[in-house]
Structure formats: C-alpha cells, structure tokens
Amino acid sequence: MSDLTTTEQANVRRAFRFLRARLGTWEAVAAALNMHWSTLKTAKGEGTVSASMAFRVARVAGAPVDDVISGRYAPDGVCPNCGTRLPE
Which residues share a beta bridge with 78? Predict the structure, then answer.
C-alpha cells in the first residue's frame, strides 16, 4: 500500500530512470538515494513506490517533490542527459 496514486508512482519510476541516465548505474542511483539496491530494484519494476522514495528522489535531483510526483521532473519526450525535447 502506498500514499501515492498509481500515476504518481509511475512518475517516480520515470524519475528513477532519469536519475539512472544521469548517474550511470542503478547502483549509483541506490547509493545516492541512500536505499538498498534490492529495494530500488523492486520499486523501479512494478513494486510499490512510497512517498519517502519520492522525497529522496526530489532531494537528490534538487527538484520540488511535487515536480517528481507530477511527472514534471522527468517528462516523457525529454532527453534524460541534456533535458532537450526529443523529436516526435
């Protein structure tokens, strides 16, 4: 059970992938989030994403937590490396 909606959890998972592109490896993401790798592995798949995870992502990303859970931090169609909009 999570305090986040299904959509909010999906947005946090997208932010996980965005951080992975920025940091290079899933292990680096787990370390940056101060989270055990197995916890991140479960959450990035189809496991439950908690509000605590969203706050950790926001802290590491230097973004407001609202941007993380709303999907504005790592929007679809944006390059995770440089932030430019990808051609459609």
Answer: 85
CB atoms within 10 A of CB 17: 14
Statement: the pTM of the whole predicted model exceeds 0.90: no
**Residue 45 DSSP SS3:** coil
Per-domain residue ranges of the chain: 6-70
Give CATH for domain 6-70. Answer: 1.10.260.40
| Angle at CA of residue 76, ends 71 and 66, nearest 5° | 10
7-11, 16-20, 79-83: segment of lowest average pLDDT: 79-83
Cβ atoms within 10 Å of 28's Cβ, excluding its own: 13
